[in-house]
C-alpha cells in the first residue's frame, strides 16, 4: 500500500473516531443529569389508559420478551427487566389505590428461576393483599409464560394466542465431529468426572444423560404441581396436557388451561364487573428512564439501529453454559 493510501486510511479512521466521540459528547451534554440519576429512585411511571370517575385503580403491567434476569447489562435500552417487573407487581400490591392487577403476558417463557420468582410474587400479593390478579395473554404466553399465569385468579387469552408448551428444556451444541475434521484438539483438566457435563467438545455419556434427565424431571414435576395448585386440576389431567405442545387460546379454553377468551380491553371489563369496581381509573405501569436506559440509547445512536444493537448485546452476553428453561422455541 503506497503512502497516499495510508494517509487516506488514517484520515478516514480519524473521522470515524471523531464522529463517535462527537455523538457521545452530544448525548451527554444534552442530558438532564439530575432527572437522569433521580429516575432510578422511581422504578416506573403510570400512564393513564382509561380515565375513571371512581376512587380506585386497575394496574396493568406488561411482560414482553424472554423471562431472564439481565441485571448488570447497561447496554440494553429496552426489553424485559426482571428486577423492575417484580418491583412493579410488589408496588401494585402495596398501593392502596389499586384494586386489581392485570398482567399482560407476551412471552415464550424463559428461565426456570426467574419464572418461579414471578409466580411466587403473584401468590404473595394475592395472599397478603387479597387483590385479584388477572392474566391477559398476548400473541404468545407459552411455557414460562403459562407457568407465571397459572396462579392468577383468571386467565384470559386471545383465540389465536399460543400458550401451553408445558415442560422443561435444556440444550447444548456438540461440535466434536467438526473439530475432528478441522484437526482441533481440546485439553480439559477437571476436578471430577462430571465437571464438564454437557461439554460441546465431546459426546455425552449415558450416565451424564441420566443425571440431566433426573434434573429435568424434577423441574417438570414442579411445573406440573404449579398447574395442579393454580388451576385446581388433577395431576393426571395436567400430565395429559403437559407434553410440551402448544395450544391456541381457543384450544386452551376448551382444555381448561384458560378461563375466557378476549383482549386486554375485555379483561379490564371482566375485572371491573366480576369484582364490582365502580368505574376505576386504568393505569399502565411503564419503566422509568434511568441511567442504564440512557447509556443504552447513547450506544444505540453510535452503533446503529435497535436490532443491530440487540444482536451485538446478545452475542456478547451468551456463554457456553447450558441452562434449564421453561421456554417455547419455534
Automatic annotation (TrEMBL):
<feature type="domain" description="Peptidase S49">
    <location>
        <begin position="127"/>
        <end position="277"/>
    </location>
</feature>
<keyword id="KW-0720">Serine protease</keyword>
<keyword id="KW-0645">Protease</keyword>
<dbReference type="Pfam" id="PF01343">
    <property type="entry name" value="Peptidase_S49"/>
</dbReference>
<keyword id="KW-0732">Signal</keyword>
<dbReference type="InterPro" id="IPR029045">
    <property type="entry name" value="ClpP/crotonase-like_dom_sf"/>
</dbReference>
<comment type="similarity">
    <text>Belongs to the peptidase S49 family.</text>
</comment>
<dbReference type="InterPro" id="IPR002142">
    <property type="entry name" value="Peptidase_S49"/>
</dbReference>
<dbReference type="InterPro" id="IPR047272">
    <property type="entry name" value="S49_SppA_C"/>
</dbReference>
<dbReference type="InterPro" id="IPR001907">
    <property type="entry name" value="ClpP"/>
</dbReference>
<feature type="signal peptide">
    <location>
        <begin position="1"/>
        <end position="24"/>
    </location>
</feature>
<protein>
    <submittedName>
        <fullName>Signal peptide peptidase SppA</fullName>
    </submittedName>
</protein>
<keyword id="KW-0378">Hydrolase</keyword>
<dbReference type="InterPro" id="IPR004635">
    <property type="entry name" value="Pept_S49_SppA"/>
</dbReference>
